[in-house]
Amino acid sequence: MPEYKLPDPGEGLTEAEIVKWHVAVGDVVEINQIVVEIETAKSIVELPSPYAGAVSAILVAEGEMIPVGTPIIAIGDDVADEPAAGGAPEAPEAIDLSNPAASGGGEGESLVGRNKADRGPVRRARKVPSGAMAAHMQAQAAFETGGAPMVEADEEPVPATAAAPLDTPAAARTLAKPPVRKLAKDLGVDITTLTPSGPNGTVSREDVESAAGGDASGAPGLGAGAPRTSTAGGGEREWREPIKGVRKMMAQAMSRSAFTSPHVTEWVTIDVTRTMELVERLKARREFREVRVSPLLVLARACLLAMRRTPEINSWWDDAAQEVVYKRYVNLGIAAATPRGLVVPNVKDADSMSLLELAQALNALTATAREGKTQPAEMAGGTFTITNVGVFGVDSGTPIINPGESAILCFGAIRKQPWVDEATGEIVARDLTTLALSFDHRHIDGEKGSRYLADVAGIMADPASALLF
Questions:
Q1: How many Å apart are CA 184 and CA 100, to the nearest integer?
Q2: How many domains does the chain have?
Q3: How far is CA 223 from the centre of its chain?
Q4: Are residues 413 and 286 in the same domain?
C-alpha cells in the first residue's frame, strides 16, 4: 500500500513531532487534503495527502518525534501477492515505526505500537515504483530544498527472514502509552521484558516503577527522572517536558546570540499621549475600519523611519567574512509568544509599505502566529525585531538580539502616570511608556544606538515629527 513519508518542511530540518491527526483509519481522503499537523524546530506545519483513498493505517502516534523520511500513514488497500512456493504469502512491505523513547503529551493518548503486531519484520524496496509512488515522491519534493528526487525504476520488495509466530512473546509488540515509555527510558528499564498488568495487556506506570526497584514516593531504586507523587493532593510535585520543536530552536538561537554578540541595552521613558490620540483618530478613519490599529503600528512605523538616519541598525556583522552587511530593505520581525514557544515572523519589505499596508501585514502576521501556523519562510530573513512586552503589563526588559540581526527594540506597557510638563512645570497625568534598545556593540557604537533610540522616541512623543524623516 502507498505509505506517505514525513517530508522535509524546509530549511534542511531533520525531524518533526506528530502533533495532531486530522484523519483516522477507515476515513477516505482526497489528494491535497490536510491529514496531519507536525511541529518542526521552526513552526507548526500542515501536511496534505499526496494520495486519494481510504486510510488503512496510522503508522506514528501523536506526540512521537520522528526523522524525515519515516512513513507516517498508509493510504489505500494492500496488494495481494502470489503465494510463495511453500504456500504461505510473502510478508507485506512495511516498516516498524514505533519510537519507544517518545515522550508524548498525556496519559490519554493512543497506545504506541497497537495494530503493528500483525506485521512481520520485512524490508522495504530500496527503489521507488513508478506510477502512484512516483507521484508521491514528487509531492514530497515540494517540501524539500534540494528539488525533486530522481525516481528510479520498479523493484520488487525483498522479504526478510520469516517472522516468528505472533503468539510468542518475542513477536508481539509491547503496548504502552508514550509517558510510560518515557518513564521506562529515564529509569533504564527494558520495557519489552516486563509483564503487562494494565488494561488490554498494556504496560502500566506501576509495572515500570516496580521493575526499577522502587515506587513513586521516592524509594531506593527510583531514577532521578521519575515523577514524584505528592502525598497531599495525589498529583505530581514535579514533571518534565522534553525540550523540542520551537522551544528547542529558540533556546539554541538565544544562547548563540547572547554569547556571540556583545549586547548593549539603552532605555528611554517617553510621553506617548499624542501617539494614543493618533491611534484613536486612525481607528475612526474609513480605510482603517477593517484592521486593528494599536500603538504597536505607530512604533513599527517610527522604527522604519528612524533607520533612514542610522542604517547601521539594519545591518549585520558577518564574522566569517569580517564584513558589515548593510541592507536596503527592512524585514520587520514581531516577537510572538505561542503555547509552543517564542516565534519571530517578519513582514517582508516593511519599509516600502504604506501605514495601511503595514497595519494589514501586522494583523495577518499576529493572527497566524496565535494559531501556531507560522511557516519557516515567514520567520527567515529578518533584519530588525520589535518585542512587545507591554501586552503582559511589563514596563520593559533587556531583549536578546535575534541571530542574523544587529538590534531589537523592547516596547513596554503604556500607563497613566504623573509627568512634569516642560512648558508649564506642572505635574499632569500622561500616557507613559519605556523603550529599550539592545544592539550589537561590535559595529553599532553608543552614539549610533542612542541616536536611533532618540529618533524613535521623538516620533512616538510627537507623531507629526515623522514628516522630518
A1: 9
A2: 2
A3: 30
A4: yes
* Rounded CA separation 407/400 (Å): 8
CATH code of the domain containing 250: 3.30.559.10
Whether residues 344 and 446 share a domain: the answer is: yes
Q: Which helix (H) or strand (E) holds 341?
A: strand 341-343
One domain for residues 18 and 103: yes
Q: Per-residue pLDDT tens for 144-158?
A: 433 333 334 344 443
Whether 22 is a known active-site residue: answer: no
In a domain? residue 229: no
* Boundary of a domain, candidates 167, 194, 221: 194
Residue 196, classified by CB atoms within 10 Å of its CB into exposed (0-12), middle (13-18) or buried (19+), is middle
Rounded Cα distance between 278 and 414, Å, is 15
**CA–CA separation, 312 vs 439, rounded Å?**
10
Q: How far apart are alpha carbons 253 and 402 in whole angstroms?
A: 7
In a 10 Å sphere around its CB, with 0-12 CB exposed, 13-18 middle and 19+ buried, how is residue 63 labelled? buried
pLDDT higher than 50, residue 138: no
> Which entry of 22, 136, 263, 441 is annotated as an active-site residue?
441
Helical ranges in 188-340 per DSSP H: 205-211, 245-258, 273-284, 295-306
Amino acid at 41: A
Residue 214 lies in a domain: no
Parent domain of 422: 246-468
Q: Give the pTM.
A: 0.57
What pLDDT digit, counting tens, does each position of 219-275 carry?
334 343 444 444 444 567 787 877 776 677 777 777 878 878 889 999 999 999 999
Main-chain dihedrals φ then ψ at residue 467, nearest 5 degrees: -65, -15
CA distances to 2, 71, 356, 438, 460 from 360, rounded to whole Å, are 42, 39, 6, 27, 20
Q: Flag whether pLDDT at 100 surpasses 50.
A: no
Measured CA to CA, the distance from residue 413 to residue 432 in angstroms comes to: 8
